[in-house]
Amino acid sequence: ELFTLVRNIIRESGYEDMVSSGIVLTGGTAMMPGMVELAEQVFLKPARIGAPEYRGHLHEVLRSPRYSTGLGLLMEGQAQMVRGRRATQGGSLQGVVTRMKEWFTGNF
Question: Domain of 6?
């Protein structure tokens, strides 16, 4: 049911073409048996479980998909600080989507 809701929101937003290479599932629920197959059936695209490319302290624990959202947000915040950019810079929705796509491409 949740996958169907997300699929419909993506379609209505007009960004469906940006999901052309497939679906990356993150979080603890992604590790449940059958989730990848269910996502492929609902989205009609390849799906896989993603985990962050983290090499820091406690990497054995934090590279798990269950920590991917929180760790990904922290890593992106740190990267923006290093680049000297504020999160609101490039304020258009397209700019945000582009940065998210770049982050996912670089981390999964």
Answer: 2-107
